[in-house]
Amino acid sequence: MVDSEGPRPVPLPGPVSILMPVCNEAEVIEEVIEEWVRDVFQHLPPGSELVFDDGASNDGTREILARAVEKYPFVRVLYDERRDGFAAAARRLYQTAKCPWVFFTDSDGQYVAADFWRLAGQAGQYDVIHGVKVGRKDPWLRRVFSALFNKTAAMLFRAEYLDINSAFRLMKREAVLAVLDRCQCMPTLLNAEILLRLGAENYQIEQVGVTHRQRKAGQSRGLPPARYLWEGLRAVRGLLKIKASYRT
Q1: Tens of pLDDT, residues 203-247
Q2: Does the model's pTM come out above 0.90?
Q3: What's the pLDDT score for residue 231?
Q4: Domains of the chain (ranges plus CATH)?
Q5: How far is 75 from 87, CA to CA, in rounded Å?
Q6: In 3-state terms, what secondary structure has residue 4?
Q7: Residue 241 neighbours by CB under 8 Å, 6+ apart
Q8: b/e string for 174-205 if b means 16 or more Cβ within 10 A?
Q9: How far apart are CA 143 and CA 223, in angstroms?
Q10: Low-confidence spans in the chain with pLDDT less than 50
């Protein structure tokens, strides 16, 4: 559960690379950046960075990011002209991160930046601190398919993952890189596969409840409802492949 008192900044064992894929979020991205600067970055260790992977935005997002780079020395932007999807952007971000800790999240403003500290308080004890959405504000059909996916993963891997593909997690970079090249079984659910592989390889994982807000503006570029069934079947196949890869 998310406690009623706001989270407070805590010391961290090292600098953090905060990673965000972004594509056509001009209506919210400036507000998101300022929220993270105000509530998180001013309290982070020196050397921390905020890295965006821009997926060929054409709505003014790139111009906003360019201004952020000029304003804040800790902001970096990767530019992708192919618009090859969320998972490819996430993979590039993990590979380019410079800090010993990486924090991955969305850029649409549905997560609360200050909830970073709910996870950071566990950084000295775990390899992965995974944010679980409380009061999830996604469409009902997406919530249903997500719940089925979580239950299937929990059954196969004998671990009670509550929100396996949540995009709000703090991890040791070395842990992510240890499994990243082998994460090929679920092309559209890279973060879920990373979590499953880290769990299967006995990395220490903690789950922490975080707030999930209504989207303030723009439209979600997540999976269209018409593809839920097909992608759900692909995801189950991916789970079985990951499970099989550990049988030996």
Answers
A1: 999 999 999 988 776 555 555 566 767 777 888 999 999 999 998
A2: yes
A3: 78
A4: 16-245 (3.90.550.10)
A5: 21
A6: coil
A7: 185
A8: ebbebbbeebebbebbbbbbbbbbbbbeebeb
A9: 12
A10: 1, 4
Six-digit token string for 159: 């671990």
- Which two structure tokens, joined as six digits, stand for 98? 């410079």
